[in-house]
Specification:
Layout lengths: L1 E4 L6 H7 L4 E16 L4 E18 L2 H10 L6 E8 L2 E8 L10 H13 L4 H9 L1
Parallel strand pairs: 1-5
Antiparallel strand pairs: 1-3, 2-3, 4-5
Length: 133
Amino acid sequence: MLYFAYGSNLHHFQMKRRCKDSIFLKKISLKNFRLTFRSKYRAADIEQNKNSIVHGGLFEISKSDEKKLDIYEDFPFLYKKFYFLYYGKKVMTYTMVRKTSFKFPTERYLNVVKKGYKDCGLNLKYLKKALND
């Protein structure tokens, strides 16, 4: 199955630890969504927003990896699954159930996301934009 990561799961070492079968395929973009941070966890989330783009990583994951991610993402309580098509292939990602207001991420979490951006070859300017919006 294909999985789109946009937050801490971009970090390759962390992702491998969580999902041993995961394989990073490439960086991709999700149109008409924007990156934000919210909830008491100050974690990454995406929300629909016309003319915005979320940059992230496309991973191939196994069914057992998906079950592990469901636990990590506190599915279906904190995050729900969202599916979209990428060149005709179904891709799964997570989006928060409750859309609370923006909460600046902790330095530790932000450093994991920044490392993930580097791992996936993403430009940090997109992350900085999400933090300044």
